[in-house]
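Run log // design_07
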């Protein structure tokens, strides 16, 4: 189906209407107190296409904690800093285990399976720290996100960051465990300071879809025409999103949606239809793998109606 024949505006509206009626909305994450207070009734969706048009519906302009979706952007920055050397410290295989699992790390001697599980993202934070202090890394990260979004209002929610720090015992364990294997090079509190602040970035669906545009275009920022990453790197980041972006639910997401995507425990999902669209959905209720229940359903309906799955229409 060609892009122009898809009435995107009405499809997005229809899906948002359907999601209002959904019975099973999943359960809002409660392990970070600040996230537990968000209403499960939110649903928002935004689609930016190759012409720069943005179609939105529902709560597309309500900011939420994008959490693990930031792992895509932090990885992009770290690859820019150290290139393929990053892959000596982090793998590229699906983990098949929960996002915060520690068991695999023992067998694999402190090298996390991929950059999208917590352990892998913590190593990425440690790599970003190589030449800087935590506040500088966070500043750079924020600037990067504002540049990609084309919106200087994007900000870190300091209350969420504090809540993460006060309750992130598993992340502290993961970081210390990897430090014991020599795969964390900085004091654990500095590395985690970067990680917790990064996770606490607030964005709305519209901003998030805009931030993902460089992955839709093969690496170019449509606002400036400048390259953010090479086409090869964009393609490889998308491959990781497809295989690892939903933790132990990645196979299920590929089966149902068939787009590279990255979820966050705040209920957001960024999905990319290469050369077609950058899509953000948000609904805070999660399924049993920690991925947005209605976000996944909405994307499934979208690909059914547009034929955008990378595996073909149907
Ligand atoms: O590490 C954590 O607990 C969170 N700050 C990020 C987790 C996350 O979003 C995992 N997602 N599904």
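design_07 sequence
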């Amino acid at each position: 189906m060609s892009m122009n024949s898809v009435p995107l505006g009405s499809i997005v509206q229809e899906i948002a209407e359907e999601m209002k009626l959904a019975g099973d909305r999943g359960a809002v994450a409660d392990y970070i107190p600040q996230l537990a207070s968000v209403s499960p009734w939110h649903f928002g969706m935004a689609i930016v296409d190759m012409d720069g048009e943005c179609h939105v519906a529902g709560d597309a302009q309500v900011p939420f904690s994008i959490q693990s979706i930031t792992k895509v952007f932090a990885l992009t920055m770290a690859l820019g800093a150290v290139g393929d050397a990053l892959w000596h410290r982090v793998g590229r295989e699906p983990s098949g285990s929960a996002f915060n699992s520690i068991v695999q790390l023992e067998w694999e001697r402190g090298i996390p399976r991929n950059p999208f599980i917590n352990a892998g993202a913590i190593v990425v934070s440690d790599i970003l720290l190589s030449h800087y202090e935590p506040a500088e890394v966070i500043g750079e990260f924020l600037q990067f996100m504002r540049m990609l979004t084309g919106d200087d209002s994007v900000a870190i929610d300091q209350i969420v960051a504090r809540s993460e720090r006060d309750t992130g015992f598993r992340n502290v364990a993961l970081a210390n465990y990897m430090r014991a294997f020599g795969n964390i090079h900085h004091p654990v509190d500095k590395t985690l300071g970067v990680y917790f602040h990064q996770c606490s970035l607030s964005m709305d669906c519209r901003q998030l879809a805009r931030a993902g545009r460089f992955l839709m275009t093969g690496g170019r920022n449509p606002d400036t025409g400048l390259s953010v990453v090479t086409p090869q790197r964009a393609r490889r980041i998308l491959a990781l999103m497809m295989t690892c972006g939903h933790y132990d639910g990645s196979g299920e997401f590929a089966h149902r949606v068939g787009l590279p995507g990255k979820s966050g425990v705040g209920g957001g999902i960024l999905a990319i239809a290469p050369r077609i669209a950058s899509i953000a959905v948000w609904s805070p209720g999660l399924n049993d793998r920690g991925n947005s229940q209605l976000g996944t359903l909405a994307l499934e309906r979208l690909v059914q109606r547009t034929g955008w799955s990378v595996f073909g229409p149907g």
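The first strand starts at residue 27 and ends at 28.
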